[in-house]
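Record 1 of the preview.
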Amino acid sequence: MATTDPDAPALTVVVDDLHVDYKAYASGKTARNQRALMTRQRGVRVVHALKGVSFVAHEGESIGVIGHNGSGKSTLMRSIAGLTTATSGAVYAASRPALLGVNAALISDLSGEKNVMLGGLALGHRPKEIRERYDDIVEFSGLEEFIDLPMKTYSSGMQARLRFSIAQSRDHQVLLIDEALAVGDKAFRAKSEARIRELREQAGTVFLVSHSMRSIMDTCTRVIWIDHGNLKMDGDPREVVDAYQASK
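->
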């Protein structure tokens, strides 16, 4: 009889034969690089965003997710976060995953300060906890002199910095980061990557979607390559990144 190793890292996410299809009205033209993802049904285009993806994630892993634009990376993250419903298959998580993406909603008419407060509440902080962590969040973002200005006056990079700073203020068992590091400057990227490693070492699991192979190599202990909705490769970061770059 098989036994369970008590010292093995705990499972945090199980993705089991995950399929996700989208339906949209066809425009009459099909892009060549997306032809393999699509079929037509009487004027309706069915996009097969994910095609039977399966893997497991453990505590302490930092998992890079790579692939070309439209390969299904963001769909995978949204499925793990519970924001996109599976067509078939399932996703199981030990706790509710937190998705941090560059397109995550911020209230543009409110100040950075008020967005910190609201973002902290959305993460599950109590008001007292947010007040206690407020200075650290703002300092991490490097936006002290702009924090009282409306978010609509921020550049995309400034918004991403504040968003990441809010998200990192709480220890997540599963944290999903979708391109959040791509728009920060070099110093902020280095600080963010160091924080990701801290979160991983605190027995969490971090998923990082990025087109920056340098960020992937510097941050991740494992890499998953998604190609046209399929899990193409899963393993050592150097091996997977080399294979991905050789395929271009």
